[in-house]
Amino acid sequence: MQEQIELKRSMGIWSGLALVIGTVIGSGIFFKQAGVLQDAGSSTMALLAWLTGGVITLAAALSIAEVGARLPKTGGLYSYIESLYGPTAGFLTGWMQVIVYAPAVIAAIAGYAAFLTANFLGLAPRDASWIAVIYILFVVTINLLENRVAAGFQVLTTSIKLIPIAVLIGYGLFFGKVDALGQTVHQVATAQNGGFGVAILATLFAYDGWILLANIAGEMKNPRRDLPRSLIFGVSIVVFAYVGVTYGVFHALPVEQIVKLQNNATFAVAQTAFGDFGGRALSLGIIISMLGTLNGKMLAFPRMAYAMAQDGLFPKYLSKLTKKTQVPTNAIASVGILAILLAIFYTDGVDRLSDLAIFAIWIFYTAAFFGVFILRRKAKIDGTDKLDTLFKSPLYPLMPLVAIFGAIFVLYSTIVSDIYGVSISLIMVLLGLPVFFYYRKKNNVLR
User: Transmembrane segments in this chain: where (predicted)?
Assistant: First the structure.
């Protein structure tokens, strides 16, 4: 009889916090201020956009925290949708994330980190492609070891990335000489100036990624307790960091200069504070930050593929756990290979591919937020409601409703601005149906 190998429950609250913070905070916190400012039209409205996006994200995290506490399974969003709406909807959720979004976003992050690294080292831009491959291989190798190694690396990189964030906030607050509030952007309206709604949309995309914590629930020591805490505290810290850095930059530089500098605004603040050393130190901090984000993606996404394979909806080899490390080795290697292939052969298209997948993912987010109402109603009907022992989203039903309306706003805005991309996204989702029917028949999945 073959020995049953299970995922190792070794991750606690600190690993959870590091995954939430480290996965969300990549490079966007250092580059998004000018874009949001242009759309919002003034520094006050830009800060309000970041805060509004943060409130919506926190409401979403509170909602998923309750769903996750009731359904503490490995697989995250796939497992939630599968439990709530059945295997077809669950499969399409995982299909879009594992086959399209995961390799695309990993390749995109690795490619951008590699480009910054090439600049930092004075190498030619063409060298960025092999640096990207090295970065992906590096995080794959870390994740093939015991999960505590990847979790430890996540804690380390998250701690390091918080240093430049704290410096930018501190310098802006205490040494900035510009009024952070009330500055107006005086410029000719362009296609980039989308208004307050578009500014909020940009912040919501910058806040995205926190839900990946749910993918590793099966490896947390106490997921019913630690998953909600990690989500809530982690998202709260991220919101504080985004709003804080934005306020610090607005307090240090006039808005017209921020718009003119675009992605170089935070570098200008760092160079003002510490000279050329500050700019290079910030570049290094961003590279480390992106490596942490890369590791978080590689830690989370293969667990979804593993859960789907366990349910008989993906190739069986993806459900294999290595006896020594107790991690889904084949799933990790497969996601890594797909990302490397994209990084090598589809460099110019990975950003667009990941953008296309986001619309479909937000459809499944919306469905998961409705899950709070479904699970509460079901528990009440069958008499199994144990709200005293489970995490309960506060201010119910306000929090899940805020999350739902925020998600609908994202979907509506995307449809209005990119109907072609939306159509491609939906087609990519539907392409998963024949694959689902094949594996359901092959493995006799009856659920």
Answer: 12-31, 43-65, 98-122, 128-145, 152-174, 194-218, 230-250, 281-306, 327-347, 353-375, 395-413, 419-439
SS3 call for 11: strand
Answer for the pair 182, 44: CB distance below 8 angstroms, yes or no.
Answer: yes
Count of residues in the chain: 447
Nearest to 387 by CA among 111, 26, 69: 69
Superfamily of domain 13-442: Amino acid/polyamine transporter I (1.20.1740.10)
Rg over CA atoms, the chain:
21
- pLDDT score at 191: 44
Residues 436, 10: Cα–Cα separation, whole Å:
32
**Contact (Cβ atoms closer than 8 angstroms) between residue 202 and residue 246:** no
SS3 letters across 8-37: CCCECHHHHHHHHHHHHCCCHHHHCHHHHH
Q: Is the pLDDT of residue 190 over 50?
A: no
DSSP 8-state code for residue 98: I
Give the other-Cβ count within 10 Å of 199's Cβ.
26
Q: With 80 as the cut, is the pLDDT of residue 182 above it?
A: no
149, 142 Cβ separation under 8 angstroms: yes
DSSP 323-387: TTT-S-HHHHHHHHHHHHHHHHH-GGGHHHHHHHHHHHHHHHHHHHHHHHHHHHHHHHHHT---T
Question: Which residues are 175's β-sheet partners?
Answer: none
Q: What is the dihedral of CA 438, 442, 444, 446, to 10 degrees?
A: -10
Q: Which residue ranges make up each domain of the chain?
A: 13-442
Helix crossing, 419-430 with 350-382: angle to 10°? 60
**Low-confidence winner among 154-163, 209-218, 401-410, 419-428 (lowest mean pLDDT):** 209-218
Please give the Cα distance from 308 to 102 (Å, whole number). Answer: 15
**What's the predicted TM-score (pTM) here?**
0.89
